[in-house]
Amino acid sequence: MFKYRKHSTTEADNAQRSLDGFARSGNKYTEGFKYNNRQSNLDLSGKVDDEQKKQHRTDEQQEASFPGLSVAFQQGKTMIDLEGIDEAPRKKHKKRRRFGKLFKRLALASTVIVLSTAGYLTYKGLSTVRTVFKGNGDGSLALNQNIDPSLLKGEGDGRINIMLLGKGGETHPGGELTDSMIIASIDPFNKKAALLSIPRDLYVNVPGFWSMKINAAYVSGKQKAYDQGLNDDQAEAAGIKTLEETIETYIGVPIHYYIMIDFLAFEDAVDAVGGVTVDVKSRVYDTNFLPTYLLDIQPGPHKFTGPEVLFYVRSRYTSPRGDFDRAQRQREVLLALKDKILSAGTFANPLKISGLLDSIGKNVHSSLSVDELLAVYNIVKDVQPADIKSLSFVDDTLLVTTGYVGDQSVVLPLAGPNDFSQIQEYVRSNLVDGFITKEAATITVLNGSGYVGKASTATKMLQSYGYNVTQTADAPTSDYLDTIIIDNTNDQKPYTRSYLEKRFGVTAVDKSPKPGLEAYQSDFVIILGANEKSI
């Protein structure tokens, strides 16, 4: 049974009032509820306006933001508090990794629901979908079947990167903060996908602004546009652009499209199809979820309304595995919602279809066009669960830690403040370009510059992009001034050739320009010269 029960005196005294940004106003959910307008001490909603007033700070003031870090971090003492960045304790490493994968698959499930629903409705010619999917993104060449290699800017253009954003919306405190940020990166040529979670408290210097948590980048860009007198659509575009530039700068991922969903879309979609039935695996007993009432859900099948299912998927504080239990519940609900949406009972009911369209139209925004949407859907539907890679900065490789800026708890690169090199290398090595993977070219790197270690440095850099470097050695002579690339494939691996030419700034040749190099029979042989500046 699904119950809201008023706290006893003891329960009320003992309950921690961690609000997790949940809505505290109005009578939307259950008549007679009393909501508290308090906000979490990490909620930036009350700080964003103050930040906007600082737009004219000098560069020196902006650069001074990082010295506010805690003394312990500055002295090299990393305060590793994984629970502070929404992860499980280290001692549960194996379970954390397993449930982390469930969370990332949840994100792909969200994408599939949006894509499959909109794909079906687009097929039926319903105009609301065209209102949501307007097609104002930068676009991805990887959606095309036959691509001229010369059109690709560099490694990474052989993937489709969609920024999945979740926000609370107008009815929630801090509703414009993007508290859920996941990059869905799709390799269309090898039918693989990766889901990269961005910590919402990651502390970055937002281009055009100053240092802040990354979840405030979108609303900062949006508010600045409003201050300049721009309209709603222009302000939305400015906010998205600010967040895209921030992610591209610090994470190193080019963003081609975005999908923004708020909590109302989730609630309304559930209500539009008549609710969803979920088999609750274990009791959910949360004394912290509401200030006056506790949440008590017993095991067994439950049919949830939209508001009730939002309670269910957002509760975490008294769950044994915290966020991981919550992620598992979210996955269960999304799968139930997907099944309900695709059921004959829904598609045969015009009223349910109309309600579903309304929920999408009001609360979902995307830069995908309808044609791009269908193209992505046709790719994603063929990606198998085993081919979905789950990526986090705290899973197999610990890349971030927590620290303080003033009294704010933030997430910071473990390498040091503003040093995102390890994070970018990790991302590159896991989001390998689809063309590089497909062609699987072998590469030999030779040092002809006379500078010790140059070939090793180049090899490490190439491997971080997914290139298959099979040999690293000194060239027969060390008198090369300019780098040379030899293509032994007779141009049979044109995408790798094009990427290498762009990376080293030279045109590949088909024959060795000097004697002594014929012995190297890799697909590509790179001889580094003294003038090489890319490494």
Brief summary of the model shown:
With 535 residues, the chain is an alpha+beta fold. The protein is built from 18 helices and 19 strands.
Highlighted features:
Aminopeptidase; alpha+beta; about 525 residues; elongated; Alpha-Beta Plaits; six-stranded mixed sheet; single chain
Report what the structure shows.
This protein is α+β, with helices and mostly antiparallel strands. The chain folds into 2 domains: 93-430, LCP protein (Aminopeptidase, 3-Layer(aba) Sandwich); 440-528, Alpha-Beta Plaits. It is 36% helix and 19% strand. It contains 18 helices and 19 strands. It has helices at 9-14, 48-52, 59-63, 71-74, 93-123, 127-132, 217-227, 232-250, 263-272, 306-314, 323-341, 344-347, 350-363, 370-380, 421-430, 434-439, 454-464, 494-504; strands at residues 2-6, 160-167, 178-187, 192-197, 203-205, 211-213, 257-262, 276-280, 284-286, 293-297, 300-304, 364-366, 388-391, 400-405, 408-413, 442-447, 468-474, 484-487, 524-528. The strands form 6 sheets. A 6-stranded mixed β-sheet has the order 12-7-2-3-4-13, sandwiched between helices. Strand 3 and strand 4 (192-197) form a beta hairpin. Helix 5 (93-123) runs parallel beside helix 11 (323-341). The longest helix has 31 residues, at 93-123.
